[in-house]
Amino acid sequence: MFSSTLIAFVFGAAAVLAGPLDLTYPRICGSHPSNTKLVAAERKFDAQMVAPGASPMGGEPTSPKLNVYWHVVSKDDTLEGGNVPESQITEQLEILNKAYDNTGISWNLVNVSRTINEEWFNEASPYSPLQADMKSALRVGGPADFNVYTVGFKTGQAEGLLGYATFPSDVEAELSDDGVVFLFSSVPGGATENFNLGHTLTHEAGHWVGLYHTFQGGCAEPGDRVADTVPEASPASGCPVGRNTCKEAEGVDPIHNFMDYSFDSCLNEFTPGQIERLQAQMRTFRGVQFGETTEEGTAEA
């Protein structure tokens, strides 16, 4: 959707959700900024944007090969209790790297920590102070280090979530809050039907690198602030090929885009505009500098 500028985000995870969860859709992501936050974020990004080739954040650039620190948070030491095995973590990183292959970003697993804490496992969410306790205890690294937390989202306001993320411009004010929290059973081979091919993390990582939902703002401009994603009135569910919720737009809804709510099996792309945007976000707020994009066109998994 059209905009002359890209966008950043200036809110912490505790303020990511703009309202109550909409349980109409099976994929529930907690990363929904309010309009007020978006306006402030655009202004911040416009003021601080780092151009390609410039020295990011006034210092030495960071490689786009990003360190991943995976924090397994479980209620006990069983698979059903959230103790994700190394094999699924390895496969998830393979899926993530395939999805981001044409973006210039690659993901390198550095360490896996394991913590048994039933409260964190059940209740950590953008609404709960427990998520701040969890991250304060476990997070490591700097603004370009990707901290991932797998939990259960079992009770209270956490129930029903698949994941949520912080955004690049959160880092300056709230480094300790930075990262992605997502449902342990949505990893490849997990027990969450239709969302167990690994693209919950692909989606949440998309927010972490600076992307909006494709349906942000509905049919009205500027929407998701990316020119080549077709406007979409509402999230997709399943894989509704040919769906067209914005009749005046050129093209059908971007149901295959990783930033929609479609089933994992339906998702396979980032657009060139999204790639341009995420690189600008990462340069500006996480100090990551990119070489030339690997190839033109859509990045497909």
From TrEMBL:
Source domain of life: Eukaryota
Signal peptide interval: 1-18
Domain Peptidase M43 pregnancy-associated plasma-A: 163-281
Entry-linked Pfam families: Peptidase_M43
GO molecular function, one term: metal ion binding
GO biological process: proteolysis
Keyword Signal included in the entry's annotation: yes
Keywords: Disulfide bond, Hydrolase, Metal-binding, Metalloprotease, Protease, Signal, Zinc
Family: Belongs to the peptidase M43B family.
Record-given protein name: Peptidase M43 pregnancy-associated plasma-A domain-containing protein
